[in-house]
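Chain A, query sequence.
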Amino acid sequence: MLAALIGAGGAFLFALLLSLSGHSSWYFLAMLVGAIAPGLIFSFVHRPKLEAVRQACQNLPAAIRYGLILAMIAAALGAKWALDAGGYGLLLIPVVASAALFGFGPALFTVAASTAVADYFFAQPAFSLVVTEWDDAFGLAAFAILGAFAALLVDEALNLDEVPR
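Chain A, predicted structure.
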């Protein structure tokens, strides 16, 4: 419960900072991640099946792990286009999944790759890695910071020795 309150408070403060980005969906997303993620993560901590899957994924060769990460990003991108979803919040799903399956380092790679994908496809000018608008720069920075925070939160929660009760 304390982790959820800390996460919600931190996400609320971060959401206030996101008002500079002009992306209204980021406020809701930041608060949602901060409020819900800790509770969900703690409910899955120390589940034998989850730990077995995580261990098996972490033992895969690096090329396969990073290939799976790129496939998750491609799937999230396809889902965004299929659902015609605004923003690029769906690209946080591969970040959380890679942190849960592969650990913090690969999750940071996922954040960097997802930020580059969001920049290339959704920031102006489209199909370029050049950022020319302040709104896009703030949005991409907010995405990268929120993604790194979510990756750290997931990885740390799954690496706990004891679950606080």
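Residues 134-158 form the longest helix (25 residues). Helices lie at 2-17, 24-44, 48-58, 62-83, 92-102, 104-122, 134-158.
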